[in-house]
Design goal:
Helices cover about 10% and strands about 40% of the residues. The chain is elongated and about 55 Å long. Strands 1, 2, 3, 4, 5, 6, 7, 8, 9, 10 and 11 form an eleven-stranded antiparallel β-sheet that branches. The chain has a single domain (about 1-215), classed as Lipocalin (Beta Barrel), CATH 2.40.128. A hairpin with a 6-residue loop joins strand 2 and strand 3. The longest helix is centred in the middle third of the chain and has 7 residues, at about 110-115. By secondary structure, it is mainly beta.
Amino acid sequence: MSELFSETSIKRGFKGRFKGFCCGVGLLISVTFAGQAQTATPATKHAPTVKFTLVPAKSKITFYVSSSLSDIQGTFSSWHGTLKIPVLGSTDGVSLMLNISTDSMTTGSGVKDGVIKGKDFFNVKEFPSITFVSTKVIPTSDPSKFQVQGNFTLRGVTKLVTLDATLNKDGTVDGLIHGALSFDRRDFGMTKNMPFNKVADTVKVTLDIDVERSVPVARTAK
């Protein structure tokens, strides 16, 4: 698991598939990874935190829910987030944050958008954001895969969710995080159905997030 966040893997690329949103969402989405601690050497312990820029213009966050008439798929066009790695070669303290604007959601249907943004569902006027903040990174037997646990907040309700993640280390310092997660809308107070349309309880969120390593700005000597 540690090699995913090593200097070598970052130079080869951070191109990946970040699977799980239940978290999805929201997917998809403020997010923070806090991983299992690994002992850092004195040389790396005090190294500066490596930061990455998440590029919304090259990314996509969507949600999907089935219904009795036609399945519903929506896209969030406005969001921001951060990814930080305190110690290269360790998942300890790694953090990913996502904050998604609920009002930026669109399904391609003005009628559906109005209902979904209304008080029975996202209630965008009272709850303008969906966030995810990771709390723990769990490695698996496959060094390219891991699970991310985090707090997912929707409509003012926070639940712990798990994302199954896969990273492809091909490329350079740029890459892709792909993630998918599912949640029960009833847990977040969305208990009603759309007019003449029975909506399923399970909502699936998918994230395809472009990641670019931030370049430190050199300070000019005075």
